[in-house]
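Data availability (excerpt). The following record was deposited with the supplementary files.
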Amino acid sequence: MAGYDDRDGVIWLDGKMVPWREANVHILTHAMHYASSVFEGERAYNGKIFKSREHSERLIASAEALDMPMPYSVDDIETAKEQALQASGLKDAYIRVLVWRGSGDDMGVASAQNPVRMAVAVWPWGAYYGDAKMQGAKLDIAEWKRPSPETIPVHAKAAGLYMICTISKHKAEARGCSDALFMDWRGYVAEATGANVFFVKDGEVHTPLADCFLNGITRQTVIQMLKDKGITVHERRIKPEEMADFEQCWLTGTAAEVTPVGQIGDYTFEVGDLTREISQDYEQLVRT
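Predicted structure:
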């Protein structure tokens, strides 16, 4: 496909449907210089956006965390997403909603006088990890660590929080891996660059406590699915060396969906029955 700046179609931008190639911003847009931007990544299945309203609510919460008063309500965001999805002509699609501080009277760190803007883009997107969806992804261990909640608004889906994700994923891919796993600032297992992580041991599931990273909507969905099956889920702090004793592993996220993991650093995992079952159940859930 063509680059993301050179495609047919339209993008919802500040209340209007704008031709894709014309959906541009000025070079002195505040977000480009100071990361004053939040976003949501969502998927539509059979023409319906999965957990759409929860994503819209989180978008507003993220904007509030960055002191960006939203000019749109949850209902407004829902309408914008539906309009963009309909205009795309797609039934199965990825939806990116972006909110940012635009250009205006301020061009220093402070930007209270600059408008808060919003855009919605829709495009087709298959399996985020490609063949790893079936075979099990291979993960590097990132050199960077997830920061303390005292240093940054860790529960916002903010663009600035992804800087170390880009660096780490580039290094992982250069080493033949699909992604990288972060530890947090204390040394506990945290998450991948754009997905939460789960482990299986003796029929029970263990996942890092979301106390310094985004508590993903897919993560919450999968936890509830497991509990509904009567499977014990431990949300807790996990030491890296514990990975040696875990039997299975998978990642969750809107883009990742449920993706098996076969290796993290020197630790290996089987793509076991529970991993496959949860992946299949999730696929069924989003399409009902």
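Summary of structural features: Residues 132-286 form a domain with the D-amino Acid Aminotransferase; Chain A, domain 2 fold (CATH 3.20.10.10).
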